Amino acid sequence: MEKSQQISESLPLVILLTLSGGFMDAYSYLCREHVFANAQTGNILLFGVNLSTGNFSSALRYLFPVLAFAFGIAAAEIIRNRFGGTKRFHWRQLVLLAEAIILLAVSLMPQSFNLLANSLASFACGAQVESFRKMNGNGIATTMCIGNLRAATQAICDYGFTKNTTAKENGFLYLGVIGIFVIGAIIGNFCVNMWQEKAIMVSVILLLAGFAFMFINQEN
Q1: How confident is the model at residue 217 (pLDDT cuts 50, 70, 90)?
Q2: pLDDT of residue 9
Q3: Does the pLDDT value for residue 155 go beyond 70?
Q4: Residue 182: helix, strand or coil by DSSP?
Q5: How confident is the model at residue 59 (pLDDT cuts 50, 70, 90)?
Q6: What gap in Å lies between CA 70 and CA 123, rounded to an integer?
Q7: Contact residues for 61 (Cβ-Cβ < 8 A; gap 6+)
Q8: What is the rounded CA–CA span in Å between residue 188 and residue 70?
């Protein structure tokens, strides 16, 4: 199978994971004390601001998710190296299954456990961003938008200079992924209003759908 056609890089899977990515950020921000699950730049900024004002307890509230995100990236690499040669399933499926289990645990945590809940959600996001980095051979992010916005703008500019239709298609594809992230955030807002802490179960369902989708065409 050609690399650009791997099931882990397919548009349907990217849509599921991006919806979940937008949902998770909305959930953690709206329901878990205004901490980002994905946008670690925002968490690092708020960590620094609180540190500068001597608000050390709030600073730690933003620091731990950043550290958990990094550990999530490392965990994905450990899974890739340990299970990368497994034929029965793909190592990325293990990442999705682990994410779903972690977020299921988060759904059961009350507000008094927000620090742990946010750290676990960021851990899951770190594992996802490390495991799913391409769409049809092009670099993509399913948990944040800044890289996708850069790629979209560059591709559209390339089309303006060269009239290359592939560049135009890629540009609008990246913009579409950003739009899907926004839709995930919108859904997250509605679900948090209805279900509060348990709203993250929507992401669990999306991740399990991605896990099942990958069985359609196993990768080597």
Answers
A1: low
A2: 85
A3: yes
A4: helix
A5: very high
A6: 7
A7: 33, 35, 50, 114, 115, 118
A8: 24
